[in-house]
Amino acid sequence: MSETECVFCGIVGGEIEAEVVHDEDEVLAFNDMNGRAPVHVLVIPKRHVANLEAIDALPDAVAKRLFAVASAVAEKLGVTEGGYAVRVNNGPDAGQEVFHLHLHVMGGQRLGMP
Ligand code: AMP
Ligand code: ZN
Q1: pTM over 0.90
Q2: How far is residue 12 from each of residues 24, 25, 66, 88, 114, measured CA to CA in Å?
């Protein structure tokens, strides 16, 4: 999928609405539209990167910020103490649906695998 057709690029560009919970230079976090836990936020790089195989396209500092923002979002939404899962679905067997790299930050209930 090209960047022009990418739903998350659309959110970054403001053409598609989302409930933003954190916005900074290179990283955006917003509520998953189909939340499967009391807290279910997606953390994305603003630059289009399809998956982990393409992560070298991101500056190292931005890759680090993805995790720092996941932690900041967890703190903001009150799940740091209870704990939370940070998950990447990478590729078909993992059920990746949106080919713009994103971290799922999920908490507020007991979470199992997968
Ligand atoms: P996955 O690619 O499997 O990691 O999952 C993509 C996630 O993006 C799913 O949990 C969807 O509910 C979510 N999603 C897809 N489109 C949107 C959107 N426009 N706004 C918020 N979340 C979305
Ligand atoms: Zn994109």
Answers
A1: yes
A2: 11, 11, 15, 19, 28
